[in-house]
Each structure stands twice: as structure tokens, then as C-alpha cells.
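Write out the 3D structure for:
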Amino acid sequence: MEHIKAVTSLIASYKKLPGIGNKTAERLAYASLSFSQEELDNFISSLKYVKENVHKCSKCGMYIDTLTCPICDDSSRDDSLLMVVNNSKSVFSFEKTNKYHGKYFILKGLISPIKGIGAEQVGINELIDFLKKEGVQELIIALDSTLEGEITSQYIYKLVSPLNIKITRLAYGLPIGADIEYVDERTIELSLLDRKAMKEEN
């Protein structure tokens, strides 16, 4: 027996979320049916609030729901230090360690030739403009240790090298193929403290 039409539609909606396969989408859909009216109203209200109030900081690209960015507009942070990551979730991973006090630049994704995603689509041109204007002295490349992350890291390195800016990357204490958002805080902290000067690969 197949799912009723309404549930099938809800399952399809849940499957659009990253990391949600068919089985998990089915469980979420049927769990939603047990919501009380109050729980359902709160759930819908939360989704609407996010859609209507969350936006990207025009400077660093982080998702915020305030007029000012809590990181870009924090005068206590080190303007000479910039970490480039590929999503807002990675920022929270580093912030939890309380060991990094510089600024961030969040790309719009990673270069992926297979998917037809180029440098201009992930915001690398904006990153270069940021580096030229903001007086950054060290760029920390903190992208996922995946094939796409490595391609993007090397591309950034080639463009930034002529700018006389120190380029470092996280130490390889991070497991190969790992998404930073899923790595434990201690490993992130150690990889940050033991970051290495980046070199172009042959």
C-alpha cells in the first residue's frame, strides 16, 4: 500500500533537507501527524520567522537575524585575521572552541567541476575584493577536507599568493573527507592551533 497523497507530499518536502533520505523523511512525515495544533502552529511560525527575518551579512556572508553582524561589528575581534569557510554552520563549530577571535568570510559553497559549479558561483571574487580592502594579514583556509574542498583551497591559494598575505590552512588532524560541522570541538581546536602555512600542490 502506498502513502496517502498528503503524506507523500510531506515526505517529498522533508527529502529536500540535506542528509534526509526516504526512510527518515517518512518517519518525520508521520511524526508530524501527531503534532498538537499548538505544536503545529509553533512549527509553522518558526519556519515563517526564519524565512522573513534571517538574511546574510553583506560583509562576511553569515546568516543573521539582526541589523548588525555579531562578528563583523565586534571591535574586540582581530581584523588582521580572516578565516574562510564554506557555510555558516562551520562558523559556529569554531566559535564553540573560544580559541579563534578573528573574522570570517563564508563562501557560497565549494568549486565542483562535476556539478558545474565554478569559482564565480561560490563567491571567490568577493573574497579577493574583501582581502584587498580590509588589510588582512593572515588568511586561514578552513574548508571541508573533501575533493571539492581541496580544489577550492588550491584555487584560493593561487589567487591570494600574489597579495602578500600569509596563507595557512587547518592541520590535517581533521579526518580526510570530513565535514567540519560534524567534527568534535577538541579536534577543531587542535587543528586551528596547529595550522600550517599553505603551499601549492604540484
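DSSP finds eight helices and seven strands in the chain.
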